[in-house]
Amino acid sequence: MTSRPTTSPADDIIDEAARWKTRLLSGDTPRAVRLEFEAWLAESPENGTAFADVDDFWESLGAFGDCPAVLKEQRDAELERQRACARGRQQGSRRVRMAWAGIAAALLLAVTGTAAWNLIRESNLRDRGRIAGQDTPSIVYETLRGEQRRYVLADGSAIHLNTDTAIAVSFSDGERRLELSRGQALFSVAHDPSRPFVVAAGQMSVRALGTEFEVFLRGDDVRVAVTDGIVEVRESGKPADDPDRLATKLARGQQATFTRVAVLQPVQTANISQVAAWRTGKLIFASTPLAEAVDDFNRYTEKQILIADNELEGLRISGVFRNSDSDQFVRALATQFPITFRVEASGDTVLEAVH
Q1: Are 268 and 225 in contact (CB under 8 A)?
Q2: What's the average model confidence in pLDDT over 12-31?
Q3: Which end of the chain has less neighbouring CB within 10 Å, N or C?
Q4: What CATH number is given for 281-353 in this structure?
Q5: Is the fold of 135-270 the same as that of 281-353?
Q6: How far apart are CA 127 and CA 160, in angstroms?
Q7: What is the pLDDT of residue 13?
Q8: Residue 298 in contact with residue 342, Cβ under 8 Å?
Q9: Residue of 134 and 323 predicted with greater confidence
Q10: What whole-number distance in Å separates Cα of residue 30 and Cα of residue 326?
Q11: With contact defined as beta carbons under 8 Å apart, do 52 and 124 qualify?
């Protein structure tokens, strides 16, 4: 009679992701190891999902990741991994697994017990956006309406996706390329001069020069805001030496919007707190046209806000609101402006002018 395996394939992937997390904890990871890691991620979308789960778990532990017991187990696990490689993987695999189990035990003892990992892992797997299958040349990360997700990429960069966003990630030896097909994302870019980090959106491409920045594809317009460092924004589809090709640089605290025909609107000062507000579930409006504010709310909820009278669209709105509480927003409008509202049977809210 054959014995049943003690772990499922999913558990094996999680274990492998956890070992990679341990190897990559050092900030000075050799290029050969990074390339090996990227190859492992490319083997299966499930590998990327598992690594993101482990990384989320690690982040959720906060300062516990630096506790002495955890650090000791990390060193022991890495030493055992090196010994296993010298002996041959099959002979050493059980010992490597046991070494990682020591890290996991130290982490779980630092928090609330073994249920902590299961709860976090199950939550991550249940809520995570879909990752595209292996038959695509890149990995696609998506969020649903009202959902936000953070992913760590193979190079150590992080992407934070806002509601209803999709982005394809494709790394090569010469370039780290991302294609934003809809929505809004914040990018924290790991330094690697040998491989430019380029985000394509609409008619524009954004090249990071060691930075953190946001790209928002809103209809046919592309808004780029820089929260740290510098980015270079260029018009796609035209030769680099074309004198009519649009190109500009944006530094920390600057933002610019590019229209469908790649016309650059005046560069503006970016309100950093406003740019980052969506990551904390807030919408901040500062003299924002009502039509734009309503569009922002509608991105987060199935029940929509509709403007019945065109004359209301240009009203300027200021305030801080929870993106999940459109009712509060509507009530605030009715108290501050000559606006009345009614709720349809569908649940949608219709705004009308008071004459």
Answers
A1: no
A2: 70
A3: N
A4: 3.55.50.30
A5: no
A6: 15
A7: 78
A8: no
A9: 323
A10: 49
A11: yes
6's tokens: 């003690």
Which pLDDT belongs to residue 229? Answer: 92
Q: Is residue 294 predicted with pLDDT exceeding 60?
A: yes
Helix (H, G, I), strand (E, B) or coil at 123: helix
Asked if residue 204 lies in contact with residue 258, where contact means CB atoms within 8 angstroms, the answer is yes
What's CA 260's distance to the chain center, in Å?
A: 25
- List the chain domain ranges: 9-126, 135-270, 281-353
Tokens 């009679």, located at residue? 1
**CA 25/CA 348 separation, integer angstroms:** 48
Q: What is the value of pTM for the model shown? A: 0.62
pLDDT confidence bin for 313, thresholds 50/70/90:
very high
Amino acid residing at 162: N
Q: What is the DSSP letter of 164?
A: S
For 270, the 3-state DSSP assignment is: coil
User: In this model, does residue 4 exceed pLDDT 70?
Assistant: no
- Cα–Cα distance for residue pair 25/77, rounded to 1 Å: 12
DSSP reduced 3-state for 88: coil
pLDDT digits (tens, 9 = 90+) for 172-213: 888 999 999 999 999 999 888 889 999 999 888 999 977 899
Q: Residue 153: what pLDDT?
A: 87
Q: Nearest Cα to 312, choosing from 328, 334, 296? A: 334
Residue whose entry in the numeric block shows the structure tokens 């002996």 = 87
Tokens of 348: 């949608």
Output the six-digit token pair for 144. 């649903």
| Range list of β-strands (E), the chain | 139-142, 149-152, 158-161, 166-171, 176-188, 197-201, 204-208, 212-218, 221-228, 230-235, 247-251, 254-258, 268-269, 282-289, 305-307, 316-322, 339-343, 349-353
How sure is the predictor about 328, in pLDDT bands with cuts at 50, 70 and 90?
very high
CATH classification code of 135-270: 2.60.120.1440
What is the rounded distance in angstroms from the CA atom of residue 331 to the CA atom of residue 339? 10
Ranking 60-69, 165-174, 221-230, 330-339 by mean pLDDT, the lowest is 60-69
SS3 343: strand
User: Residue 199 forms beta bridges with which residues?
Assistant: 178, 206
Determine contact, residues 174/141, Cβ cutoff 8 Å: no
